[in-house]
Write a structure and sequence with these properties.
- The protein is α+β, with helices and mostly antiparallel strands and 490 residues long.
- The protein has 18 helices and 16 strands.
- Bound molecules: flavin-adenine dinucleotide (FAD), D-malate and zinc ion.
- The site of D-malate has 7 residues, from strand 14.
Length: 490
């Protein structure tokens, strides 16, 4: 239900926005005229699961503009949704009702780069692929990579605390982000764009914005530590007969590839089947296996890395841990092999819609959740060629203990949803896992937060939210606002 504390958008509000932002095209105005087609991409999420009804989208160009419009929203009790590339997978980036969308697309400047330290200072609205292309020219790499790199923004990455494909090597944004510039709901500009690796002077407030999903302010600038770009990158793709063997291969990869291992990704047969059906690409290896893994190495000495990778493959194949495998011979093949991993999400979406669960689980049970879900949906006769659910798919960041349990469906369906939720969250709670490893809470997971966080933690989180956003204008109905919180914690 729409919260009646929030003001409905009026002409005077739109007039203020138009007067305040640099040029009129920075305001998509659906109040004065029918602009539903123009507003649609900002109201609709990537998964086509959530749709808001905003009547106005603002595209400020500077931190000062963000400050002015946010202060105005706060003073006038207009609810707000910050939006980056709108590639989020939990419905956080679109309004629920008529919230004002503040989209960062126009804040897209690189501010500075130091090629000795590798520290990049950048606007929150820069698309991550553009950041990485800039860094490539300077011999560095953006420390995060993910399938939506062509649309996701740096500020969106930080707000979501995205994990991605190289987390194993370069770690969390909680470590890589050195400083932030953010605007608080009352318009205050928080300037903490530190370029220091070490800074133990008081509470590290920026950490609250990392993974804060836009609930306490808008990130307009980011200072981020970027690693040297590796001279030698190799990718191998292989098939395995069991999850036991996947675990053995992972252990061996850490042991034998050590410091050059930059990704270890897991894909099950169902996931690769979807990529194959969608792309009709020739499969990298012949034969059907229940599991496939993709390994990437990044190092400074090609010869040395090749030697290590070949010794590793020889060992795991000799020991029959890996059944069959292939190593990319050039850049094109590297991209093709990555396509079998990065293309999974889009491939499933092509056949309808997808129920998505992004879970952290102790590694030994990582795939069990997929098997149990498959069994459950089969026993309820919800899955199959003539049914709504097209399969149960497991893939993810093996090296991070993070599996993506996905149920592709012809269309979103209440019976399928009721069979999975909250059952899957209870499953995760029993294993002491996380119900949201990297995608966040948004609206999709808000009411399940109690499966993960206890009452003491929730109380502190609510106090923090109250301190930063006393009027509660940022991201209502999401994150901490889930109606089910008490029911699962009380
Ligand atoms: P949005 O989707 O626009 O917003 C995400 C959240 O952050 C929302 O709550 C929004 O309100 C808030 N927000 C956005 N910008 C700001 C800002 N400047 N200040 C404050 N709040 C803000 N995620 C992973 O973690 N790992 C993956 O491997 C991964 N792969 C993906 C692959 C595909 C094909 C797709 C579609 C998505 C994937 N994602 C992944 C999810 C998503 O791309 C990331 O979370 C990404 O970081 C979101 O960035 P964005 O700019 O699109 O943010
Ligand atoms: C991935 O790892 O590919 C992403 O998190 C996207 C997804 O889960 O669909
Ligand atoms: Zn992921």
């Amino acid at each position: 239900k729409r919260d009646s504390r929030f003001t409905e958008l009026k002409q005077e509000h739109v007039d203020f926005f138009k007067k305040t932002l640099e040029d009129e095209s920075a305001v998509i105005d659906g109040l004065s005229k029918d602009a539903s087609d123009d507003l649609e991409p900002f109201n609709r999420d990537w998964m086509k699961k959530y749709r808001g009804r905003t009547k106005v989208v603002l595209k400020p160009k500077s931190v000062e503009e963000v400050s002015k419009v946010l202060k105005y929203c706060n003073d006038n009790m207009l609810a707000v949704v910050p939006q980056g590339g709108n590639s989020g997978l939990v419905g956080g980036s679109v309004p629920v009702f008529d919230e004002v969308v503040i989209n960062l697309t126009r804040m897209n400047k690189i501010r500075s780069f130091d090629d000795v330290s590798g520290i990049l200072v950048i606007d929150g609205g820069v698309i991550m692929e553009n950041a990485d292309n800039f860094l490539k020219e300077h011999g560095h790499i953006y420390p995060l990579d993910l399938g939506a790199k062509g649309s996701a923004q740096v500020g969106g990455n930080v707000a979501a605390n995205a994990g991605g494909l190289r987390f194993l090597r370069y770690g969390s944004l909680h470590g890589n982000v050195l400083g932030l510039e953010a605007v608080l709901p009352d318009g205050t500009i928080l300037n903490d764009l530190s370029k220091l690796r070490k800074n133990n002077t008081g509470y590290d407030l920026k950490q609250l914005f990392i993974g804060g999903e836009g609930t306490i302010g808008i990130i307009t600038g980011v200072s981020i530590q970027c690693p040297q770009r590796s001279k030698a990158v190799n990718v191998a793709y292989f098939g395995l007969e069991s999850y036991e063997k996947v675990q053995k291969a992972y252990k061996e990869a850490k042991l034998q590839l050590g410091e050059i291992l930059s990704a270890f990704e897991l894909m099950d047969a169902a996931s690769q089947g979807f990529v194959h059906r969608k792309t009709e690409m020739k499969r990298p290896i012949e034969g059907d296996y229940p599991f496939y893994c993709l390994i990437e190495t990044s190092g400074s000495n090609g010869e040395h890395d090749n030697e290590k990778l070949e010794a590793f493959l020889e060992h795991v194949m000799g020991e029959e841990i890996v059944a069959d495998g292939v190593v990319a011979q050039d850049g094109t093949q590297i991209a093709e092999l990555w396509g079998w991993r990065e293309g999974i999400t889009e491939a499933m979406g092509h056949f309808g819609a997808t129920y998505k669960y992004d879970l952290s689980i102790p590694i030994k049970d990582l795939y069990k959740v997929v098997e149990d879900t498959r069994e459950r949906l089969e026993s309820k006769q919800l899955i199959g060629d003539d049914k709504v659910a097209l399969g149960v798919v497991g893939f993810g960041h093996m090296g991070d203990g993070n599996i993506h349990l996905n149920i592709p469906v012809r269309r979103y369906d209440k019976d399928v949803e009721a069979a999975i939720e909250p059952w899957v969250y209870e499953w995760i709670q029993k294993k002491e896992g996380s119900i949201s490893a990297e995608h966040g809470l948004g609206i999709a997971k808000a009411k399940y937060i109690g499966y993960q966080r206890d009452e003491t933690m929730l109380k502190l989180m609510h106090q923090i939210k109250q301190l930063y956003d006393p009027n509660g204008i940022m991201m209502p109905y999401k994150y901490l606002s889930g109606e089910g919180v008490k029911e699962h914690t009380g």
